[in-house]
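Extended Data, panel c. Modelled sequence:
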Amino acid sequence: MKAYERIVIFVVLVSLLVFFGCGKKSSSAKVDASKPVAEVKAEAEKMDVSALRAMALSYKEAMLAKESEIKKLTDQLKQIPLAQQLGDEAKGLQSEIKTLTDSVSDLLERFTVYYDKLEAMGGDVSGLKT
């Protein structure tokens, strides 16, 4: 029984390490799709090249995550038979898709502020264009 307990403890510890310690580290820049664009522009004016790139990258990652969610929901919507496309399930999916699409538009607007400022400062914009 001792060997079994050790194996269980080892598996749990490895699982915790993988879950908490080896995940992709998101950048420290905070994404806020509700922040007024004028405020974003004012903040971007005060940032250096590395901070601008970090913010642009954070916004890009957030947009890609939302686009992935939109694709999943769209795939679910396609699975609903045509006769049920006006039903509650389809309407709920369509509503979620619209909310996510609006959020991506808001994120893109703010991303563009950081991207344009970074480009104007001569910073590295490779890998940022959406």
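DSSP finds four helices and no strands in the chain. This feature is highlighted in the accompanying rendering.
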